[in-house]
What does this fold into?
Amino acid sequence: MRKLVVFTGAGISAESGIKTFRDSDGLWEEYNIMDVATPEAWTKSPELVLEFYNKRKAQVKGAMPNLAHNLVAELEDNFEVRVITQNIDDLHERAGSTDVLHLHGIVTQARSSVDENLIYDVGFNAINLGDKCELGFQLRPHIVWFGEDVPNMNRAYELVSDADILIIIGTSLNVHPAAGLINDAPTKSKKYLIDPNEIRVPDTDNLIMIKEKATTGMQQLVKLLN
Ligand code: NAD
It folds into this structure.
């Protein structure tokens, strides 16, 4: 089977009602990103950080996968599919994708604030001050904050550099290092980018832009792939 990598950003979940980072009415708007999504914020005011992520968690819980997530999952019938997502929601998993790499973590997990290897499934339960890991240290969201390393980045590069087909959906390609992934796909691989807005992409061979929302774009792409 041909190897197909799907790389997604916040845009694929927009039609599920989860706002993108840059939407003007997004949840991010209520907060200054540096106050809630950095290690410095965690040191300064963990309550605010937990409040922010507990709200995000509640929002994700109330959302459902949309047709784009579903069509990505169905690609597994015909391709060896790996999903790499920048999203912290679990909508790919709930749509049925079986191989999902989260670059920036996921809201349904918590981790120890001192040992990054101690990770716990907490589902949609809130994380509160006083919730501790087995070593007795405060739990934090299992999220990669701005300024932190992205531990799954090497695996993502490996997957993309071995792809026959790369599909990119709903990412402004602004958040690094993830945004650089497109450059690692083999020159001969087919690349598709679905986004309703103009995305600035580095010079890339074999790239087809589908300027549509994720659900419409994925329906068009499935026809192209068939
Ligand atoms: P971004 O907000 O920078 O870009 C979103 C992209 O989605 C834009 O290019 C926009 O044009 C596009 N878009 C908007 N509506 C769309 C639709 N209906 N269909 C397809 N595309 C659409 O998001 P990013 O590039 O993913 O980076 C932001 C960071 O914020 C990520 O690292 C991610 O971790 C985090 N984030 C996650 C979620 C989530 O988990 N759902 C939501 C917001 C932000």
In short: The helical segments are 33-36, 39-44, 46-61, 67-74, 91-95, 153-161, 214-225. The first strand starts at residue 3 and ends at 8. Residues 9 and 171 are 4 Å apart (CA to CA). Residues 9-11, 13-15, 18, 20-22, 86-89, 104, 170-172, 174-175, 195-197, 199, 213-214 surround nicotinamide-adenine-dinucleotide (CB under 6 Å).
